[in-house]
């Protein structure tokens, strides 16, 4: 019997970032469904609500980091910079939510604590931290790929007398480091963005580096009116370009091999990309991510730039001692990262050579006994990527099967969108989707539209449930694996693509590396052929197990 204290909807969406906002709009305003979005935060924004650390900005270019499904949204918004900062993206998402009148259907401050498939009722029953319960036949997760903080388990952290903050859970009124000695752990995209900004206010910044990393200058700049006009006038062309590329950015990969041109020409191409900034260097040649010899030429070029920029040779050597191929971990872009180490108030500590032993009340102590006195510690240590946010919600499917059990050996999905044993559960940017290897809004639009079309199909056909088959998931996991192995990406042992950053997590290459354009075709074919790889059942009938 329906619980009296339970709110019934046609669909529940978890999360109000890019994905949840568009999913709400699509289901409510195109299909006419009664939808509720459940959002843990007190506002929209997702990633951009939580990640308020100093220097937080997007690595996609602003004109491409936006919704393209609505001309009104495109024409009613102007980005101020080539790479938008967190506050501007948050303003943009509020603009979207207001323009489409979305907030009235979002329950803020509502963290999902449990979701159970009720087979007899054909409903997902959802419990939340507020005590309010919800139910709907469709449950769609829009929880992001990088939203469950990876907090390192360092002995003594609880006794630290100063402040400790993870970048992805940053206080909304900021942290004042003026005159403070700050230690930052982690040199991924986040640490590389934060270090130059932290160094400007802190009395002293110590960067604790476990794994040296490549980074390319972003060459961020304000956008002029001519560019803003151009982007608006050419929205259709930009959209078409983003739909045609492997990475969802509006620029294609090079067509030549790095090895088919002479050393001088190659160097000139890398130089031009370095001056252009951002992700251009990865796109110079077609085989940067597939041939180790080609990759080495790009890697050597970047290492030479690091040694050129950083004045102290010992520090330069540590920063350039990079052991993974370029772009096999998410390639950061920066504004003055390597230059920061030329400041008098910044030091680099190599914790690969001398690991952190413990946090003491006054700072960090390394295994050698070296001590660093600190007033504040910043964990720029990343996320339990792709699966973390899903697994912490306590989702159970048919036969009360916990998702954690279904994924004990690594995530298993059909197209990254559905999990066998979990009828009517859709995972936007789930593991097995290209999401994190692409310009995220492009992946999100495609996922949302596919899910919306799928639900429309079910309703049209009088079908109540859809569920990925085991065989389809097995084949898709194998295909995701093959796609990864066709690149150099699995060679980066430390990458969060592989789950290797979280102790005890199964090592499975999670995102689909076959390219967004190819993925788009595969998904469209599945829909056009009547959803092979999925089982559907009419109202009142069980999905065959
Ligand atoms: P990343 O890319 O996962 O980087 C995390 C960094 O923190 C990385 O340098 C890690 O070193 C380091 N780390 C993680 N755990 C520890 C411990 N326990 N001790 C020392 N150092 C540690 O996360 P980001 O937040 O920078 O970026 C995430 C994504 O957000 C980014 O790719 C963009 O898509 C946006 P490791 O390499 O594991 O040795």
Structure notes:
With 545 residues, this protein is an alpha/beta fold. It contains 16 helices and 22 strands. A hairpin with a 2-residue loop joins strand 15 and strand 16 (363-366). The longest helix has 22 residues, at 440-461. The model has no long low-confidence stretch (mean pLDDT 96). Bound molecules: ligand NA7. Ligand NA7 is lined by residues 146, 150, 152, 185-191, 210-211, 330, 351, 380-383, 494, 496, 501.
Please give the share of residues in helix. Answer: 25-40%
Report strand order across the widest sheet.
1-7-6-5-19
Largest sheet: 5 strands, mixed
Mean pLDDT: 96
Which ligands occur here? ligand NA7
Category from helices, strands and their pairing: alpha/beta
The low-confidence runs, each spanning 5 or more residues with pLDDT under 50, are none
Q: Quick one: how many beta strands?
A: 22
Q: Quote the beta fraction.
A: 15-25%
Instruction: Report the end-to-end length measured between terminal Cα atoms.
Output: 24 Å
> Outline, from the CA principal axes?
globular
